[in-house]
Specification:
Structural class: alpha/beta
Pfam families: Mannitol_dh, Mannitol_dh_C
Oligomer: single chain
Radius of gyration: 23 Å
Keywords: Oxidoreductase
CATH superfamily of the largest domain: NAD(P)-binding Rossmann-like Domain
Protein name: Mannitol 2-dehydrogenase
Distance between the termini: 51 Å
Largest sheet: 5 strands, parallel
Organism: Rhodovulum iodosum
């Protein structure tokens, strides 16, 4: 563990200063100047740098995968600030592991460049067209794949319409991928492998659907070539990675490192990958990744128990002003709510995986959520609920309704989300916009106070679920109780009997 005492003035992070970092900080042992790129990654947020980038770094530390270095990329104007920060420190990142038994730091060097952020994405298209790039990976959030409420490709989205009409100057990462694949086919090069690293069940299949669907709008022959020759392996990714703010910047400085973009993370990682990489891949299995032909059971367990569980906690926490997930777990009522919903309404719809039963995984998740060193805000976890409830919670609800199982806890979870989206905590403090569709959600949430069906009528999220009589009645009763007597009273009633709010 790194000694935080007596660090003195922190060292500005760069290639030139690696040797000057405090003794306890791990750093690259490989020659970064000798690395050559093999991966373009779009979306250089904290999760990628704590997860995929770390796995690759660990391989490089073993003398492997030096021809698989990462070139970073982004397609939003807001990505420019991250580009500036990372390029100023030679694309190095400090990872700070927050273990309850102590804190340690490691500087990761597997990323070697960050492409310019520009209209039309010409630099990104050129980079992905290079045959040396064999994998294009993405972390662009769960809601970034242009799907409709049914999960189908949304060909009518304005950004997709733009990219279909401007094939050489696209707005989206997917439009850039299609343009690069067109260039590779014309040059006689094999397609790259598309690797989704977002929390989506069947994430590789969803990425394929988006890329092929967009290509088909403008070039059906290219779409057929991509669909036949390109690979989009499914994967399950797992590591709790908080946002970086003043606290995290100061933590890095206390460890002796002046890093403009450090990343904190828990002392747990998992990566389960479908082994379908016709253009080759790094030997990730050498550093703990699981390569398999069937990733679905793993991703179903993780997405349902961890990701859906996060939503169970975070919406209640936001309404009640509980600042972090660990603090939610220290709140006896909120922690009990999570455990009851998970045990009775989520775990029954999760199958075991080799070496792990669903109830054992739930116990692991509860320990991870309770880690007091992880300052993971309820706001971060509740962000983009329109995608996260749709992707994580509602599929469980559909299964429970089909099986005739209990849904009171899931109905209460949805009612808490609706109450959160009204934009104000119970103490009167405002909840700042926290969803790409925040304005519409606030309007629906405020209308639902008097007419609960308004919330469930958002078919882009609920589809036919909102028309289920038993669920809609339960939702309406819970939402009414929350508005009338508060979230604590609703949680109390649920924990007392698990029945409807009238109990």
């Amino acid at each position: 563990m790194t000694d935080r005492a007596g660090a003195g003035r922190p060292t500005k992070l760069s290639n030139a200063t690696l040797a000057d970092l405090p003794e306890g900080v791990k750093r690259p042992r490989y020659d970064r100047a000798a690395l050559t790129p093999g991966i373009v990654h779009v979306g250089l947020g904290n999760f990628h740098r704590a997860h995929q980038s770390w796995y690759l770094h660990r391989l490089m530390q073993k003398g492997l995968a030096h021809d698989w270095a990462i070139i970073g990329a982004g397609v939003r104007s807001t990505d420019s600030a991250m580009r500036d920060r990372l390029l100023a420190q030679d694309c190095l990142t400090t990872l700070i592991e927050l273990d309850p038994d102590g804190i340690s730091a490691e500087v990761v060097g597997s990323m070697i460049d960050f492409l310019p952020i520009e209209d039309g994405n010409a630099a990104l298209i050129r980079a992905m067209s290079d045959p040396a790039i064999r994998i294009v990976s993405l972390t662009v959030t769960e809601g970034g794949y242009f799907t409709d409420a049914s999960g189908a490709f949304d060909a009518c989205h304005p950004d997709i319409v733009h990219d279909a009409a401007n094939q050489n100057a696209p707005k989206t990462a997917f439009g850039a991928m299609v343009a690069a694949l067109r260039a590779r086919r014309a040059a006689g090069h094999a397609p790259f492998t598309g690797q989704c690293c977002d929390n989506l069940q069947n994430n590789g299949a969803i990425l394929r659907q988006t890329v092929v669907g967009l290509a088909r709008l403008g070039d059906p022959d290219l779409a057929d070539w991509i669909d036949t020759h390109a690979a989009f392996p499914n994967a399950m990714v797992d590591c709790i990675v908080p946002s970086t703010g003043t606290r995290e910047l100061e933590l890095a400085r206390s460890l002796g490192i002046d890093d403009a973009a450090p990343v904190t993370h828990e002392n747990f990682r998992q990566w389960v990958i479908e082994d379908r990489f016709p253009n080759g891949r790094p030997p990730w299995q050498e550093v703990g990744a699981t390569l398999t032909d069937d990733v679905h059971a793993y991703e179903r367990m993780k997405i349902r128990i961890l990701n859906a569980g996060h939503q169970v906690l975070a919406n209640a926490g936001e309404i009640l002003g509980v600042p972090t997930i660990a603090a939610c777990m220290q709140d006896p009522q909120i922690a009990a709510f999570l455990h009851k919903v998970e045990t009775e309404e989520i775990v029954p719809y999760v199958d075991p995986v080799p070496g792990m039963a669903p109830r054992d995984y739930l116990a692991l998740i509860e320990r991870r959520f309770a880690n007091p060193e992880i300052h993971d805000t309820t706001r971060r976890v509740a962000f983009d609920g329109s995608s996260r409830h749709t992707g994580f919670v509602l599929p469980i609800l559909r299964d429970a309704l089909a099986a005739g199982g209990p849904v009171e806890g899931l109905a209460l979870t949805e009612a808490l989300w609706a109450r959160m989206c009204a934009g104000q905590r119970e103490d009167g403090s405002p909840i700042e916009p926290n969803d790409p569709h925040w304005a519409n959600l606030v309007e629906a949430a405020q209308a639902a106070r008097e007419a609960p069906e308004t919330w469930l009528g958002q078919r882009q999220y609920y589809g036919a679920i909102g028309e289920d009589a038993a669920f809609s009645a339960s939702f309406a009763t819970w939402l009414g109780l929350i508005w009338a007597q508060g979230a604590r009273r609703a949680l109390e009633v649920y924990l007392e009997n698990g029945g409807g709010a009238e109990g």
